[in-house]
Amino acid sequence: MNKSNISRFALYGFYAVSIVNLYAQVMKVEMADFISKPLLMATLLIYYLTSRKTANSTLTWLVTVALVFSWIGDVLLMFQQRVENLFIFGLGAFLVAQVFYIIAYRNATDREVQVPVSKFVAFRLVFLIVYGGGLLYILHERLGDMLIPVAAYTAVIITMGISAILRKGKTSDSSFVLVYSGALLFIMSDSMIAINRFSHPLVQPGLLIIATYIGAQFLIVKGLLAHEEAMESEE
Question: What is the pTM of this model?
Fold first, then answer.
């Protein structure tokens, strides 16, 4: 079986386990969630690795590590209700994933292009900074011992969003839009986790959180693949 066929099957597998997991969240089917959630990042990683047409690069390893730590975070958070302190370890795994995404975004740019900061970019940078600060302000009184870990994670994920917006003009339009959209969905997903856990219970939190998370990871991967394709076509 060649790479293109493996890539296609991995993508269909990702779609399938995503649907199963979304169904599990709505219907509260614990076994379906238990089986499908660890397969989300596994199938997405296989899709990413088999969809690349260029030789392995620094970007390949950065994205791979980000997805592996995302998988670790998924697995740890599955058991957070049963094992004490797993939430903080899951948060740590996702923090590492975000750091590698930040580095990946910077790697997935045309470094020879110098682009001045436009009003479009400046407005969104300010929005992300204000959003992160506002989220912490809303939550800080209820975080207790989790204040420092949550504040650190918030700073990192907002930096991830900033790194995505700063790619504008330094990559293809499709890559920029996909990665930036994915980054925003990631911020939304993690915000809902924080709000649901530390502030106010959400309606169908599992569905909202996993739907935005799945969309985020998929768009980021597609966007980084689009960057590689654009760079290859210019050579």
Answer: 0.95
